[in-house]
């Protein structure tokens, strides 16, 4: 699977060729440095390990500094492995956005969704809540309702959907269309929304 | 933000639409595609507001149609806008003319801005 690491810049809208107004996410994809090449003989699988984003040397462990030294590059903030990369690259090579994606491609975007804090079941799991304000209801409008039976089973089943920390999780959005690519600025426009806040890391895969 | 501005610059259509302001009376030619037929609809009214920046900049036009107020929002970057004609320059004191929505008849008029014609 080919892919790149990028950074979410923000959203905008553009008109496509058919004259339709399309909401798009702007992502700065790459350039990524190949920090390691996994091979069938050495590792049992083939993959490319890519690094993206400049990190400070003083914040990088000695072990990682040595790892980046092998690829003759500076410390990177994000390192991701992509299995079975189609494009032949050797360690230290730079991969740019136009080599991996084309306009009209469909890509998957992986990111960390925005953290929403402790939320109730209506926001967290899409429960309907109690739709009546009358008929004896009092401060129960967003309550979860029953969470189980009584003396049998006498416990709450594991995995019962309840209130709790929401968002801040790894989320993948499948089949986003690539609307446009700007190779000179490493920018890519994909149709629709992508998880995460502005400036968050996004993994694009094809 | 720089990156988004860059994209807006790159995708800007150089149609050369005239500059107008809220309060102006304009006529917008809008291409409408019905099946495989294409025609241009004229929408004439007063500009209520101009909103947004870059590729998402829009303007709102209000007109009275058979006694019913009709408002349309056009994106500046729309490829379906064929032309914009400025018919009257309005003399208004604010950028958002929403007070016009509450007015009917003669009260809903906008004073015309008169400029002295340069003498030859």
| CA-CA gap between termini of chain A | 6 Å
Strand content of chain A: 35-45%
Q: Specify Rg of chain B, calculated over alpha carbons.
A: 16 Å
How many E-type strands of chain A? Answer: 12
By secondary-structure content and strand pairing, the structural class of chain B works out as mainly beta
Q: What topology does this entry show?
A:
The complex is a heterodimer of chains A (206) and B (120).
Chain A: E1 3-15, E2 21-29, E3 32-38, H1 40-43, E4 47-54, H2 62-70, E5 76-83, E6 94-95, H3 97-100, E7 106-112, E8 117-119, H4 121-125, E9 164-166, E10 170-182, E11 187-191, E12 201-205
Antiparallel strand pairs in A: 1-2, 1-12, 2-11, 3-4, 3-6, 4-5, 7-10, 7-12, 8-9, 10-11
Chain B: H1 2-11, E1 25-34, E2 37-51, E3 58-65, E4 68-75, E5 81-88
Walk me through the structure.
The complex is a heterodimer of chains A (206) and B (120). With 206 residues, chain A is mainly beta. Chain A has helices at 40-43, 62-70, 97-100, 121-125; strands at residues 3-15, 21-29, 32-38, 47-54, 76-83, 94-95, 106-112, 117-119, 164-166, 170-182, 187-191, 201-205. Chain A has a six-stranded antiparallel barrel with strand order 1-2-11-10-7-12. In chain A, strands 5-4-3-6 form a four-stranded antiparallel β-sheet. Chain A has four helices and twelve strands; from the N terminus they run E-E-E-H-E-H-E-E-H-E-E-H-E-E-E-E. The termini of chain A are close together. Chain B has 120 residues and is mainly beta. In chain B, 8% of the residues lie in helices and 41% in strands. Chain B has one helix and five strands, in the order H-E-E-E-E-E. Chain B has one helix at 2-11, and strands at 25-34, 37-51, 58-65, 68-75, 81-88. In chain B, strands 4-3-2-1-5 form a five-stranded antiparallel β-sheet, with no helix packed on it. The longest helix of chain B is centred in the N-terminal third of the chain and has 10 residues, at 2-11.
